[in-house]
Amino acid sequence: MTAVISLLDQMGGTLMFLQKILRTIFFKKLKTHEIFEQIWKVTVDSFPTTAMAGFFVGAIMTVQFGMQLKEFGALGYLGALATSGTFREIGPLLIAFMLSGKVGAFTSAELGTMKVTEQIDAVRCLGADPLQEIIVPRFIGIIVASFFLLAAGLAMSVFGGIMMGELFAGVNYEEYLRHVPLIVSPVSILTGLIKCGTFALVLATVCTYQGYSTTGGAKGVGRSVVTTAVTTMICIVVMDWMTSFIGDIILTMIRGYRP
Asked: What is the pTM of this model?
């Protein structure tokens, strides 16, 4: 019972914190230069990790599909199936997990340290709003940077698939890409990008909330980092299911689409 109450408390606190952030974004002046600084910082620090993760996700999907398609003599569809599976589900999910450990944990630790060393309280004492000065630039920076990092990771997954298709299955890049337009429709690409945006929003909300609400000194910072990593991964999995379920229902009802 205590665990359920704690979970509901965390959910409620996170949603209320998101409401405060959105109110600050829409009704207060934003620090544009700080937002761009955060976007650049997150992108530069995380691009190598994201690119590597995307590359190997595409390579793994190609190997897995290739093992099955070899038995049916259908290697011509290897690129299309691997790319479709990567774009729609596996790619955004695994790359978001990588970012939750890289970006989420770092931001939570940074904000948590500022909180326990009373830097955030000092900003408030000077008459400034900590949400406006500290949280919102990081929140927007993480969302924008994570969205493009996830999209870049998906693009890298195609290159990983092409390389592994050549080495593992003997499928050249022209054959690998030939049937991609038949299966990877604009809807598939849009689905992947929507997932990227959703995961970025979840990551930014959870890590800034956990960091901003840190208490208990250095020990509390450690707890916030662990909580951020676990909570982000759970929320990403839940949101992945929700976006897939709701998206399929909407597409089926409005456009008669069948994946």
From this structure: 0.84
